[in-house]
Amino acid sequence: MHRPRPRTIAIGALVLLLAAAPFIPRGDDDEGFTPSGDGKYGALGTSTTAGFSKVTPAMQAEIDRVVDAGGALGRTSGKQTPEQLAAGLVRCAEFEGQRYCLGTGWTEDTQQQVQARMATAARTVAARRGPVVTTGDLDARAALARMARMSPTARAAAERAELTMAARSVAKVWLLRHEIEGVALPANFLADHPEARAVATAPAAKPTTTPPPNTASPSKSPSPTRSPSKSPTRTPSKTPTATSSANPGPVKTQADYPGRSAILDIKQVAEQTRTYWCGPTAMQMIAWGWRNRKQSQGHWAQQLGTTTSGTSIYDMVRVVNKSTGWDGKDHAGPYVVLDIGKYSFTQWELLMMRHIHDYQAPVVLHPILLKQFYPYLDDDASGHFQVGRGYAKNGDKPDALSYFEPWNQHRFDPSEPTIARVQWRSAYKSYRGNQAHYAHNVGV
């Protein structure tokens, strides 16, 4: 299927903003999901997500503080201990009551806890004996080494860019805390963050799915239907029209979601062609689902800054925001790296449901590949990236999560079993795999 892909070019500035005319992509294993224009948004005080926030003077001062603290370190030696490297390089900023730590994302842990976790993970990697299957996640040791190798000027620029992107997503984070964790929104939240207000009319592409019978492995259905929606607004200065007071709308629970929901076309999948390219391959499939056009894994490796050591989850989120429209307010809003270490399975599953069904946008899953969680593996492996794209509530049976799996061990060792690209597996085991990763975070 072909459709127009309009682009807007910002002259003389920083980036090419890709805004391909969006659609709701649907996998053809998902049994007839149909769009609905029921448009109930005007009844809510808050939207389902938020657009990009403005960087306030207070935010800018906090960014400057954290970056300046790194500048005081000067050139960092890679010969320092993991504890010394983490203490100097892993620093946190406070934006409107939410904590963001460099290289880790939005977290409820203290800076000291994040630093200790990073140092411990780096020591664990260094202590490994024998070869370990690595699929392309940038591990803690490699992440610290990469930051240490940077010149002070380059490191300051990278930190400033990361913290600025974080500051611009603070309203989205507050909404997630409110909707998933039940945290009360601050007073005057909608006055301070008009980008989080409900708009007057529903986006054209907010579908309501009709759940088919609950089976963990959906059968083939007719070709996927793509429903066009409005182009996402990527400029935060354009404020949506508010329709109610600052009181937050009702918070949904798992019971409010249909039995099954899925996005993305199951034909738009690929296996990674290099052992360390799970990040580029996941990004390839995420962008393919948005643009309806396949670009090479090499292209995405370049965009992500992938090396033989792998790809960072921050870079995954950065490129989703830069190169697709999934970050539009009619989808997920700005993607963020979110620490789910304190989440229960119920909260984690609710986050998946919200992202897939309400946002109609893929999740950057970030588990560790262990056989206990992923039975199709022949060997335990490293941290990894997958593309979350569906869920099924199965009643008395375990709920299922659907994702696109870049890793195919058979490609690199023909003696090992082939791994399918489209997976429907235990949601609880995916949660456990996410929690077992030292960073326990996701891109949402």
Descriptors for this entry?
single chain; five-stranded antiparallel beta sheet; three-stranded antiparallel beta sheet; 13 helices; disordered N terminus
Explain this structure:
The chain is an alpha+beta fold. It has helices at residues 57-71, 82-89, 111-126, 140-149, 152-167, 170-181, 189-192, 278-291, 297-304, 313-323, 345-358, 409-412, 427-436, and strands spanning 8-9, 16-17, 23-24, 92-95, 98-101, 105-107, 227-228, 260-262, 337-339, 363-365, 386-392, 400-404, 422-426, 441-443. It has a domain at 22-39 and 209-234 and 258-443: Cysteine proteinases (Cathepsin B, Chain A, Alpha-Beta Complex). It has 13 helices and 14 strands. The strands form 5 sheets. Strands 8, 10, 11, 12 and 13 form a 5-stranded antiparallel sheet that branches. The protein has a 3-stranded antiparallel sheet with strand order 4-5-6. A two-stranded antiparallel sheet has the order 1-2. Helix 1 (57-71) runs antiparallel to helix 5, helix 2 (82-89) packs antiparallel against helix 3 (111-126) and helix 8 packs parallel to helix 10. The longest helix has 16 residues, at 111-126. The model is unreliable at 1-44 and 200-247 (pLDDT under 50).
